[in-house]
């Protein structure tokens, strides 16, 4: 259900910083038309850090309604307070999300035992599938494979978004968690290698800009077509660095406007517009990754 090319969807905004729900609906159709396998609404790329709870749930609801069952919708539903994460998970459940992406608690640095207790409590609050999200570069908290293995035995914890970029984790995670546990990466530059090593897909930022090509890359890698996967990865490679030249989602939002997918680039403070140097780098990467 949550396999292949999954987009970490941006949240389009009006000039005043409010959510642009019309543009959001257009983006959902854009991804479905281009073959994206599933959509993550209000993850990091969707500016979850600066949307309030009512906005957060409203965006998830809008994506669910526009997708209308055509692709699964995964709601970003994590928090560094277990009680808040449970409340957000329940709210996203109520508006019809097919699954939840639950990030490791940031800033308060829990132990591995604390992480197991945190995610177990969240899973107990819903019947929906839970995907763990490990991104220590942002959270200063690393969910270790042994703790993931313990959590994989919880009925509705079905997978992990492993965003360390550490390919050495694929084999131990697969061995510890079993073949049915979903291994997704959140690191675009190593996504092809991750899938060829036994991963199940990627929750991608680059997918926002080149969804059809990223879908083709995932399909090739998951089917073992190494030659095609390498060719597509080489085509997209310039974007992997350029879209992170400044904090995500600053570059990807600008790129989407540059190619005409969205009408404007608006983010909420403390994120600011892409620098002129950044724009040049992204512009070059867009040209280099242009479909032939």
UniProtKB/TrEMBL annotation:
Catalytic residues of the enzyme: 133, 161
Compartments reported by the entry: Cytoplasm
Site (L-lysine inhibitor binding): 49, 80, 84, 106
Entry-linked Gene3D superfamilies: Aldolase class I
Binding site for pyruvate: 45, 203
A Pfam family the protein falls into: DHDPS
Biological processes, Gene Ontology terms: diaminopimelate biosynthetic process; lysine biosynthetic process via diaminopimelate
Entry keywords, A to Z: Amino-acid biosynthesis, Cytoplasm, Diaminopimelate biosynthesis, Lyase, Lysine biosynthesis, Schiff base
Pathway field: Amino-acid biosynthesis; L-lysine biosynthesis via DAP pathway; (S)-tetrahydrodipicolinate from L-aspartate: step 3/4
Highest taxon in the source lineage: Bacteria
GO CC annotation: cytosol
Function of the molecule: Catalyzes the condensation of (S)-aspartate-beta-semialdehyde [(S)-ASA] and pyruvate to 4-hydroxy-tetrahydrodipicolinate (HTPA).
Protein name: 4-hydroxy-tetrahydrodipicolinate synthase
Naturally occurring in which organism (per UniProt): Ferrimonas balearica (strain DSM 9799 / CCM 4581 / KCTC 23876 / PAT)
Gene: dapA
């Amino acid at each position: 259900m949550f396999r292949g090319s999954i987009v970490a969807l941006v949240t389009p905004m009006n000039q005043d910083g409010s959510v642009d729900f019309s543009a959001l609906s257009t983006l959902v159709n854009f991804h479905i038309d281009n073959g994206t396998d599933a959509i993550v609404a209000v993850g990091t790329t969707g500016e979850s850090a600066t949307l309030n709870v009512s906005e957060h749930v409203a965006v998830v609801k809008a994506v669910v309604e526009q997708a209308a069952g055509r692709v699964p919708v995964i709601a970003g539903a994590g928090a560094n307070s277990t009680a808040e994460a449970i409340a957000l998970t329940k709210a996203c459940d109520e508006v019809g999300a097919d699954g939840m992406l639950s990030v490791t608690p940031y800033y308060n640095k829990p132990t591995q035992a604390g992480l197991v207790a945190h995610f177990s409590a969240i899973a107990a609050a819903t019947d929906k599938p839970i995907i763990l999200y490990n991104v220590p570069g942002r959270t200063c908290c690393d969910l270790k494979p042994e703790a993931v293995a313990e959590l994989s035995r919880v009925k509705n914890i079905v997978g992990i978004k492993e965003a360390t970029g550490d390919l050495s984790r694929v084999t131990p995670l697969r061995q510890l968690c079993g073949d049915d546990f979903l291994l997704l990466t959140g690191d675009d530059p190593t996504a092809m290698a991750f899938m060829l090593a036994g991963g199940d897909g990627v929750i991608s930022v680059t997918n926002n800009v080149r969804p059809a090509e990223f879908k083709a890359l995932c399909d090739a890698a998951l089917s073992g077509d190494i030659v095609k996967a390498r060719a597509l990865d080489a085509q997209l490679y310039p974007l992997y660095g350029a879209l992170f030249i400044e904090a995500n989602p600053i570059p990807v939002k600008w790129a989407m406007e540059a190619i005409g997918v969205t009408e404007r680039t608006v983010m909420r403070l403390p994120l600011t517009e892409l620098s002129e140097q950044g724009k040049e780098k992204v512009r070059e990467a867009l040209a280099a990754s242009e479909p032939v």
